[in-house]
Amino acid sequence: MTTLRMTHDLRRELILSAAKRCFAHNGFAGTTTKSVAAAASISEGLLFKHFPTKSALYAEILAEECKADPALNRLLDLPASTETLVIMIREMVRHFLDIAREPDDEEAQRLRLVTISYLNDGEFARLMHEKIADIIGSAFVAAYERAVKSGDARASSQAPMNLFWFAHHAAMTTSLSLMPAVPSLSYDKSESLDLQLTEFILRGIGLNDDAIASHIRRALPPELMPAAATTTESA
Fold first, then answer.
1. Of 149, 147, 165, whose CA–CA distance to 214 is shortest?
2. Which of 3-12, 108-117, 119-128, 197-206 has the lowest mean pLDDT?
3. N or C: at which end does the chain have fewer Cβ atoms within 10 angstroms?
4. 157, 80, 107, 53 alpha-carbon torsion, rounded to 10°
């Protein structure tokens, strides 16, 4: 049984490795499951036993990249608290606004794939949302519940993860509106957009004014501080 399990896991890793090369060379649209199977020296039928669709394969690669991200792991290791909740929202906003500033970057292409998926069968977007929830969801809920318990946020009568997705959608849609060469929407005082959007989301998920004022401008821990992103702290 152990030998069979190891064989299954090793083959899965082989497929993922081959798929990474194919996606890196040909992009999502130019990669087929047939080409991935050929690169992994297996049949397409065997590939489907591990990953039923190309979207599932790509989503798994992205999830593994997230799980291997040192900055994300340090963020997820922070103790559940109001401060951690604010940091998570600030980092989410920063992530999406950084994507908008680099519209030709790989992350921007991925965001476009998710958006296109919304307008079609939704498979890729659905898979990505499942992966994101699996990686980040429990940490967000724990931080939110701690903020409620400490009196820094009002309790929601609905599922806390809905608040996470509302925050995610606000940041993502803002990013999409800024991505075209001529932005589809020009925000006033765009130099402080990250701070304003973070505050808007924090209010929306229930943080009170005192909690927001106490944490929103606080410097990030050094290990989480992006080298070139100081807008929030200097705004």
1. 147
2. 3-12
3. N
4. -70
